[in-house]
Design a protein that fits this description.
Elements lengths: L2 E5 L2 E4 L4 E8 L7 E7 L6 E6 L5 E3 L7 E6 L4 E6 L8 E8 L7 E2 L3 E6 L1
Parallel strand pairs: 2-11
Antiparallel strand pairs: 1-3, 3-8, 4-5, 4-9, 5-6, 7-8, 9-10, 9-11
């Protein structure tokens, strides 16, 4: 059974930083594409950042230059370093894992990030 457990969310002032972590279990971690999505109230869940098994990363335009996704395969953990946070970054952040389009996608329970102005 695949489990994704996020941590590191919280309340921060605009301009501050947070680091989210997502620990995975029940899967061969280094075969997974890992990603972070976020969902603000009244909005659809959107991709924030993605890292594939080879380490190639993709970012949403809104976070490019401010956020960094990384993975530690030895710890089965993916991280999202968020700098220069803005109030519009406020959302529930979800961890995502998937090996391929032919396998199920898995989600964490979400962690709240609130950025005050």
């Amino acid at each position: 059974q695949v489990q994704l457990v996020e941590s590191g969310g919280g309340l921060v002032q605009a301009g501050g930083s947070l680091r989210l972590s997502c620990a995975a279990s029940g899967t061969i971690f280094n075969r997974n594409t890992m990603a972070w999505y976020r969902q603000a109230p009244g909005e659809q869940r959107k991709l924030v950042a993605l890292i594939n098994p080879g380490g190639t990363t993709t970012y949403a335009n809104s976070v490019t230059g401010r956020f960094t996704i990384s993975r530690d395969n030895a710890k089965n953990t993916v991280y999202l370093q968020m700098n220069s946070l803005k109030p519009e970054d406020t959302a529930v952040y979800y961890c995502y894992a998937r090996i391929s389009a032919l396998t199920p996608a898995y989600w964490g329970q979400g962690t709240q990030v609130t950025v005050s102005s």
